[in-house]
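hey can u check if this looks right to u? its 299 residues, i copy pasted from the old doc so theres a chance i mangled smth
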Amino acid sequence: MNFKTRNVLSGIAGAVLLIAPLSTSAQMTDVKIAATKVADSIHMLKGKGGNIGVLTGPDGTFMIDDQFAPLTTKILAAVKEIGGETPRFVINTHYHHDHTGGNENLGKMGVTIVSHDNVRKKLANGATIKAFDKVIPPAPKAAVPVITFAEEMTFHLNGQTVHVFHSNNAHTDGDAIIHFREANVIHTGDTFFNGFYPFIDVGGGGSVQGVIAAVDKMLALANDDTKIIPGHGPLANKAQLIAYRGMLTIAQGRLSKLKSSGKSAAEAVAEKPLSDLETTWGKGFLPTDKWITIVYEGV
C-alpha cells in the first residue's frame, strides 16, 4: 500500500465515523496521531476524524478542530511533541462530531472554543444528519463555542495573520475556512475532501454549488506554493484543489440537468451520469451511486 493510498484510507475511516454511533474509547485504542509539518510553526495532525491544523508559538497554540473525545489526550500529546501546549483557542470548522467531539474536554480545560454562529446553534440545540438518519443530541455546555462570527474574523498570533471566513451553504451552513496569510496555508474544513467524493450535508444547509463557491474563494487565495489542509485526505496543493473543483463542476452540471428534466434521485442514479468519474473519485466512503443520492437535493 503506497503513502497516498494510506492517507486516503485514513481519511475514509475518519469520515465513516461521522455516520457511526458516537465513538467510544475502545474504538480509539489503537489510533495514532501523526503530525506533518506544513510550514514553520504549522502542522497537520491526522488520527480519526477531520484533519487538525495547529499553529504553535509564544502567543499560545491555535488549533483547528479536535476530532473525537477519546482522542483528546493523544492529540494534546502530539501537540506537545511539535512544540505546542494546551490550546489557547480551538476553532470548529463545522458542527460534525468528527471535528467537534473533543470540544467538551478542551472546554473544561479552559480552552476558548470559536465557531460560526450556525455551528454554535447546532451544537447547543442538537441536529439531525438527514442523509444517515443520525440524531445529534445537544452538546454539554462546555462543548459549545463561546465566541462566534457571522462572516469573518481575524486572529493575530505567533507572527501569523489568521483570517477565518464563512462560505455560505457549502459542506454545511456553518463552514469556516482558515487562511494563514504569511505562511501561505489554508485549512479547508470539509469543503474539500482530497481524493474522493465529499460528504455534503444537504439537510444541514450544504449544497454542491456552495462547495464549488467555497473552493473558488480558496483558489483566489492560493498560488502554486500554497499548502492546503483538507478536511479529509492527504495534505494538498492548488492543483489538487483545482481537480476537485473540476469534478464537482462536472457533477453539478450533469445532475442539475437530470433534476431539471424531472428525474428523481433514483432515476438519476440509474442513468449512471458519473461513470467516468468513478475510478478517480469513487473510492472513498461514498461510492458514486450513494453520493448522487445524498447530494441530488442540493444540486
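Residues 49 and 221 are 26 Å apart (CA to CA).
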